[in-house]
Amino acid sequence: MTTPDITPVPGKKVLVVDDEKFVRELIKIKLGRCGLTVIEATNGLEAVEMAKSLKPDMILMDVMMPKMNGFVACQQLKADPDTARIPIVMLTARGEQANQEQGLASGAADYMSKPFSPQKLAELVIAILQRAS
Q: What's 5's DSSP letter?
């Protein structure tokens, strides 16, 4: 089943990085309905390792996580030629303008604040994946 008003992008892999299992599951269900494969990481360090080995088409990254925060993980991924072209969207409860600017400065393609609309998130993911194709 697809999500209404969203053109599926089958065969694409999205790495969802969040230390909250509920958030990862919600995103996995929503993006799965769009034909996307979702892989999960629970912290920034794990995300960097997984991105290097699995080469996802896109990354959704929380900011406040254990071991390595999302800003640092994003900077590391953007500094590595093997992962620099992967679009990253920061998805976080830190919605202040300064945090958004820091996320974009670290290399993120976009920034979405929690709480978020799963529909709007899916639309953003699909739009970014279509532009990147």
A: T
